[in-house]
Amino acid sequence: MSSEVSGETRKAARRPVPLPVRGPRPTPREPLWRDLVGAVLRRERRAQRRTLREVADAARISLPYLSEIERGRKEASSEVLAAAARALGLGLGDLLSLVHGELTPAEPVRRPVPGHRPAAAPHPSRQSPPSARAHQGLCLAA
User: Fold this and answer.
1) pLDDT for 27-40, tens place per residue?
2) To which H or E segment does residue 57 belong?
3) Where are the domains of the chain?
4) Second label for 65, Cα 20 to 30 Å away, from 12, 34, 101, 125?
C-alpha cells in the first residue's frame, strides 16, 4: 500500500464552500428579559466599583447565583431582583426603568403584525379639493 492520496480524495478536499443564499435578512431577535436585567445589574455594580461578593453579601444572595443573574443565565424572582437592586441603592422601579431604557430604542421600530393589513390611504385623486369640502360644509350648515 502506498501513502499517496488518490486524485479523487484530493478533488473532494478542494471543493469550494457554497456561499449562503441571499434573501431577506432575518428580523433581529428580541432580547431576553434576563439578559437585559443582568446587564443592567452588572453595569450598575461596576459603575459603583463594587465586587460581586460585596453586592451578593448585601443582597443576601449567593455569589454564584448573582453571577449567573448578571450573565443572563438565571431568571431571578422579583424578590431576588428587588434585593439585588436594594444592595445597589436602587428600588425595583429604578431597575425596571433602567431595563426599559435598554429595551426601548431611540426611535420606535414598527414591526408588521402577522395577519394584519394596514388600511390604505385614499388616493389623492379621490379626495375633494379644499374648496369643494368648504362648500359642502356650508351647504350642511344651512
Assistant:
1) 677 889 999 999 99
2) helix 52-59
3) 33-103
4) 101
**Do 36 and 5 touch, CB atoms closer than 8 A?**
no
Q: What is the CATH number of domain 33-103?
A: 1.10.260.40
Closest C-alpha to 88, from 44, 53, 140:
44
Angle of CA points 103, 73, 108, to nearest 5°: 10
Cα–Cα distance list, 37 to 2, 8, 41, 46, 126 (Å)? 62, 55, 6, 14, 51
Kindly calculate the radius of gyration of the chain based on its CA atoms and give it in whole angstroms: 30
Tell me how far CA of residue 142 lies from CA of 98, 130, 137, in angstroms.
Answer: 58, 19, 9
The answer for residues whose C-beta is within 8 angstroms of residue 130's C-beta and 6 or more apart is none
Of 109 and 26, the structure prediction assigns the larger pLDDT to 26
Question: In one letter, which amino acid is 77?
Answer: S
